[in-house]
Design a protein that fits this description.
disordered C terminus; 4% helix; mainly beta; single chain; 22 strands; eight-stranded antiparallel beta sheet; four-stranded antiparallel beta sheet
Length: 298
């Protein structure tokens, strides 16, 4: 079953943009799941969603501190990466100190900043407003530097089953330039570039509640981020706040999240201005070749 599905996905990389493949998911009486491009009674269209769930809201927080003169709004960034912020105010009544335009700021890792202090125009009446905070990982002021990525795995050779702009799932801004590499579960995954580990997920089994499955996000020095998705449960060996070098082991490949077969989904992203999007990148050698075991001194 898996081999057939991977073959179907391989066809997607050769398909014209006008052609799209519909994949059906069927579960038989014994609970065996089959994916196919052929419809059959009881089968449902398989909807792929590569949206990552990174739960940043509990690590980038807007805090309001009330005092005798009014209220002060601060933003705290508990992440190991800078965060691009925008704070604006709606429904403002009886307030002074409200900026005419939304406040934009890039908040460094593990820091906080006071963005505004508001006071009542009439102290006898309540101060009313609704703050709206938007944020995105990364510093949009940084520009990517030329870099050819070593293959981020050990073993192989393996096969590219879906490349950039794939009609199956690589058509969203966050995943447009991603690649899917079919490989057995448990294949060692290594960092393709040095940087800071900023987000990990390690406890998801099967499809779970995160389409990305288990993953590792690494922030590079030029502001780009390498993201490794669908990793095996419990295999992630790095922690948030840890700096890794190219070639360092980070996890093992798996089949978690919204994955139709064992593979590694690898993508390079950057903040383009309050939005994280994938960007084009190059591997240092063809995907179908053996990795360079000299990378990282191995």
């Amino acid at each position: 079953m898996t081999g057939r599905l991977l073959a179907l996905l391989g066809l997607l990389t050769l398909a014209s943009p006008a052609w799209a493949l519909t994949i059906y998911k069927y579960t038989d009486a014994n609970g065996v799941v089959t994916y196919s491009d052929q419809a059959r009674p009881g089968a449902a269209v398989f909807t792929f969603n590569d949206r990552m769930v990174e739960k940043l809201d509990n690590q980038v927080k807007l805090e309001t501190r009330k005092h005798a003169a009014g209220e002060t709004l601060l933003v705290r960034n508990d992440l190991y990466a800078p965060v691009d912020l925008e704070l604006k105010f709606e429904g403002v009544q009886n307030a002074v100190g409200v900026p005419a335009k939304p406040i934009r700021w890039v908040l460094p890792p593990r820091s906080q900043i006071r963005l505004a202090t508001l006071a009542p125009r009439d102290p006898s009446r309540p101060l009313k407003y609704t703050p709206k905070l938007r944020h995105a990982l990364g510093d949009p002021r940084l520009l990517p530097k030329p870099y050819k990525y070593p293959l981020p795995w050990r073993g192989g050779p393996f096969r590219l089953t879906q490349g950039a702009n794939g009609q199956y799932s690589h058509f969203t801004p966050k995943g447009r330039y991603a690649v899917d590499i079919a490989m057995p579960e448990g294949t060692p995954i290594v960092a393709a570039r040095s940087g800071m580990v900023v987000k990990v997920e390690n406890q998801q089994s099967g499809r779970g509640n995160n389409p990305a499955g288990n993953f590792v996000r690494i922030l590079h020095d030029d502001g780009t981020m390498g993201v490794y998705l669908h990793l095996m449960k419990g295999s992630v060996t790095v922690r948030e706040g840890q700096r890794v070098s190219a070639g360092s082991p980070i996890a093992r490949s798996g089949n978690t999240g919204n994955s139709t077969g064992p593979h590694l989904h690898f993508v390079v992203q950057r903040n383009v201005g309050l939005a994280v999007e994938s960007i084009p990148f190059e591997f240092a050698q063809p995907v179908g070749s053996l990795p360079n075991f000299a990378v990282g001194g191995e």
